[in-house]
Every structure is written in C-alpha cells, then in structure tokens.
TrEMBL record:
Its EC number is 3.4.21.36. Its main location: secreted. The lineage of its organism: Eukaryota, Metazoa, Chordata, Craniata, Vertebrata. GO terms for biological process: proteolysis. Its cofactor is Ca(2+). It comes from Electrophorus electricus (Electric eel). This is pancreatic elastase. The gene is LOC113590533.
Length: 286
C-alpha cells in the first residue's frame, strides 16, 4: 500500500501558560531501534488525498487501539497505522493500515485536561495481523506500582519546543515522580490528579503532536503501558519541575474491559460512540 502520509501537516494546539498544553511529542531522547515498540500506533486524519499523523496510540487487542480523548474529541481520526517506523519512507512490508470503525470516549471526559479522564478507545475495521513488526501492548494490573520502574515515552516529533518533527520514531527515558512531589506547589500543584502519572521534568519530555502515545515501564522482563501522553507545560515541553503528565491506565482497566468486551451498538454520528450510552445499556441488562 502507498504511504498516504503528507509529512509535517500535523495539528498543534497550545493552551495558555496557566493550563496544560495539548498534542504532545518527544523532546530529548534518541531514535528508537526498529521493532522495539511494536504496539505503537499512528493516528491519521484525512486532508484531501493525504492522511496526516496527529497522535499516538497503543494496540491493546487485535481490533482495539487505546489513546487519549483529546486526540479523537475534536479531530476526525479516520485511519490507524501499525508497524510504522519512518513516516516519510513507505515500508509496505511492515506497515498495516486500518480504517476506524468506532470511537469510544470516556464518559467523564471534558476538554479541561486538568480534570483527567483523558482516555478513549478506537475500534478498527478488522483484526490486526500480529507479526515481527506489530504486537499487542501489555496493560498493567491494578496492583502494579511504578516504584523503581524504567519508563520510556515514544512518538514521532519535535526535538525541542517549537522545533522540527522527527520522521523516525523516537524514545525518551523518563523518571517517574511520586504523586506527592508532582502535586506539590513547586511542580504541577492541584492540576495533577491521582488518575495521572508524572514523568520527566528535565531534559526529556513529550511535546507537540504525540498525545495518546504510551509510557512504557519495565516490569520484570516486560514493558508495560502504564500511561498515555496527556499534557505538558505551555511554557515549554521540557520545563524544569513541569514533568510530562500521562493518563494513568490502571485507573481505567474496568472501563477498557467493558467497552472492548461489550460493544452493543454501531456508531453512526461522526464514528463516535458515547460510553455513557453503553453504561446505561449494561445497567439495563444487569
């Protein structure tokens, strides 16, 4: 299949300095090795004959991609690409392209990122083929903690705030901060909630364009997707004492399970389903 990306036509949204910045990407770090982060997804929006990368995501089941709500709330994501490494070069032997069949946004999401619940699920048009380039991401258990974990955020994007995008998938090592430190007045204060994870706050960070991408933390011999890139400081992606903030995936395991297991209706309005409607149906059936 042809590479239908028109490179560098990315969406960029930045909020005021007192609130988080949307649509984040990688600052610092280095190029990822090919075939390292096999669950990394690229979310695309159509513009004419082009399909432009706007956000990251995580393949968690053969037909399901996890991302953040901000990526699908105001953007019409119509394609998901798995197995991509170089956004410019067509790699037909490794890339898989899928149309979006349905989108489910968390019922408690609103556009104030500081309120949390920045999470969504995308159902693909058909099952992904698992191979040496594409595999499922591992979700955390509700009891797992991040103490002592080595974590990486991954994505394509700017190498510094306001800089140029990277065509090659990047990775950056981030140290996880405890909630007490991150929610202190010297860091994010009350902006950060317990359903979030803070990591970084120095040289390495997520930045413009990589919302929805994973925070991969090593647990034993496995990398587990503990977070989804949600926001950074509008003062700069790698602002000191303003670590990248991620949606805490373990907080939403019941919701992920309910949506991906009990899909009870088809989505017709902008391919977007309200998880609130699903919850009502499940309660009626109960």
């Amino acid at each position: 299949m042809l590479n239908v990306l028109c490179f560098l036509a990315f969406a960029t949204l930045v909020l005021g300095q007192t609130v988080p910045a949307k649509q984040n990407r990688i600052v610092g770090g280095g190029l990822a090795s090919p075939n390292t982060w096999k669950w990394q997804a690229s979310l695309r929006v159509q513009s004419g004959t082009c399909y432009n990368h706007v956000c990251g995501g995580v393949l968690i089941r053969k037909q399901w991609v996890l991302t953040t709500a901000q990526c699908v709330d105001h953007l019409v994501v119509s394609m998901v690409v798995l197995g991509d490494y170089d956004l410019i070069t067509s790699e037909n032997s490794r890339e898989q392209y899928y149309a979006v069949s349905a989108i489910y946004i968390h019922p408690n999401w609103n556009r104030n990122l500081a309120d949390g619940n920045d999470i969504a699920l995308i159902r693909l048009s058909s099952d992904v083929i698992l191979n040496s380039y594409v595999q499922l991401g591992t979700l955390p258990t509700s009891s797992q903690t991040l103490s002592g974990s080595v974590c990486y955020t991954t994505g394509w994007g700017v190498t510094q705030t306001g800089g140029l995008y990277s065509a090659i998938l990047k990775e950056a090592s981030l140290a996880v901060l405890d909630y007490g430190t991150c929610s202190s007045s010297t860091h994010w204060g009350s902006v950060v909630k317990p359903n979030m994870i803070c990591a970084g706050g120095g040289t390495n960070a997520a930045c413009t364009g990589d919302s929805g991408g994973p925070l991969n933390c090593q647990v034993g011999n496995t990398y587990v997707v503990h977070g989804l890139v949600s926001f950074v400081s509008a003062a700069g992606c790698n602002t000191i004492n303003k670590p990248t903030v991620f949606t805490r995936v373990s907080n939403y395991l019941p919701w992920i399970q309910s949506v991906s297991t009990y899909e009870l209706f088809n989505c017709k309005h902008n391919n977007t389903c309200s998880a609130t409607i699903m919850a009502i149906i499940l309660l009626l059936l109960w």
